[in-house]
Amino acid sequence: MAVLCATAVLIAALPSKYSMPAVQASRTCRASSPVSMCAGGISRRQQLAAAAATGVLSVFGTHAASADETFNKMGGALEPYIDVQKGYKLYRPTAWNQFDTDPGVYDVKFQDVINSFETVQVSSSPVSSATSISALGDIASVAAKFAKSRNAELVSSSERDADGSLLYSMELQGDMYHEYLALTINRGKLFRLSTVTSNKRWSKRQELYKNVVLSFVPKGF
């Protein structure tokens, strides 16, 4: 009952506009869709690209996901963003508009300069009774509850270790939108990362958003 109540509070705390989990080494839950948060493997080209990016990635610590998935900067389409005060870091879409702090809605929002419906949004809120996102349940149950609360289809869900913090991520598809969402708890804060676009443009943003989610770490140093 406590877990169900905590999940209900978490869902209610999310911005109502869209929102709706990224990946511990060996555990991934998928729905019927073939779309996945995980790449099929690591090619030599990807390994070389990862090695070339080592200098930039070093500031982001040891958050790299499992061997099944590899973060990359998409040829410069992503650039690092760190919020030391709030305590998180990620790679954001390069050249997108940035909006700082709408209290109760987001800590930061990045918006495509042409397609305003396309956003990457981070929000945080204090939590007092949970030290890990697992307190809300396992990835499958949490993802299912979020999908149901949004009247959305759960396409896939997964979990990973984000530099010592368990992170849940999920892919959701609604009537009008498609989204990758990540949830994690660290140092008394619940972090939510939402990446949204329209269903029509999902194929153009899927890889970009996947890498944004893979880059997120709830530490701002």
From TrEMBL:
Residue ranges annotated for the PsbP C-terminal domain, each copy included: 78-216
Signal peptide location in the record? 1-25
Q: Which residues fall in a coiled-coil region?
A: none
Q: Fetch the SUPFAM superfamilies from UniProt.
A: Mog1p/PsbP-like
- The record lists the organism as Calcidiscus leptoporus
What keywords would UniProt list here? Answer: Signal
What is this protein's name?
A: PsbP C-terminal domain-containing protein
Highest taxon listed in the record's lineage: Eukaryota
Q: Could you tell me one molecular function GO term of this UniProt entry?
A: calcium ion binding
One GO term under biological process is: photosynthesis
The terms describing its cellular component in GO are: extrinsic component of membrane; photosystem II
Cite the Pfam families for this sequence: PsbP (PF01789)
